[in-house]
Amino acid sequence: MKKVKRYMKFELLNKKYSKQDDPVIFIENFCINLVQEIKQYYFDLGENPLQYRERILSSVIFPAFMRTGRRAVMEVYYCKFEESKRNYLDYYVMDSRGENSYLVEFKHGWYDYDKGKLINFNKKKWTEVNKQIEKLENEKEVIHRYIDSDKNIYGLSMYMLVSQSYMENITFEHEKYKKIILEELDKFDWIFTKKLVDECNLFQLDKLYYPNITLIGRITEIDRIT
After folding, report:
1. DSSP codes of every residue in 10-44
2. What is the per-residue pLDDT across 196-210, written as a single tens digit (0 to 9) for each?
3. How far apart are alpha carbons 85 and 17 in whole angstroms?
4. Closest C-alpha to 186, from 143, 112, 133
5. DSSP for 74-134?
6. In whole angstroms, what is the distance from residue 75 CA to residue 96 CA?
């Protein structure tokens, strides 16, 4: 039987961080766990989760965060002191040692693999998810009151791109694909890519194929105690 290569790669692009830094280790482990959750969702329910947007995808995102940390919470609310309106954080995750907290804003978009470009509407989502984290960056008191304190606290903006293609036989070229993403989106700190085209046509819906998924993100240090 021919051995199938299952391409999966995590790359750190920002030299400010190293592979040994806690947030980088956390992110890479989350990405690997997310791939496992996506596959398990398919095997358990017989349905391709990649056809959906954030709300349904939370069914695989949240368990992946639970695998990665000690505790995870969805839709955490917080208020600025001068406002009565509630704001909601997509995910809060405490790491396994209880030393670091991650405040995560997560968006989902589509990548047109056949045309080699992002769908225009989805470019805006990357900007939106970063603005959501930027709002928290200077709100330590609000975070301490409503979310967490006495830990190293990081804001993580994450963007998941799901590739779609009508071509059955695809030769996945990672460097070419990464170059397109770098050109189309603002600077990000890391990129994770998982090739799916060799997964026994697992991720196929009618005539539409899902050749790969990619996650990109930024790391923002909000508070540090160690």
Report:
1. EEE--TTS-TTSHHHHHHHHHHHHHHHHHHHHHHH
2. 765 545 556 667 888
3. 35
4. 133
5. EEEEE--TT--S-EEEEEEEE-TTSSEEEEEEEEEEEEETTTTEE-HHHHHHHHHHHHHHH
6. 20
Q: Which tokens hold the place of 198? A: 């060799």
Q: What is the DSSP letter of 148?
A: -
The amino acid sitting at 6 is: R
**Residue with token string 């406002």:** 83
Q: pTM (2 decimals)?
A: 0.90
- Cα distances (angstroms) measured from residue 121 to each of 3, 109, 170, 216, 217: 39, 8, 25, 17, 18
Integer Cα distance of 56 and 37 in angstroms: 13
Q: List the structure tokens of 195.
A: 């090739």
Model pLDDT, residue 48: 82
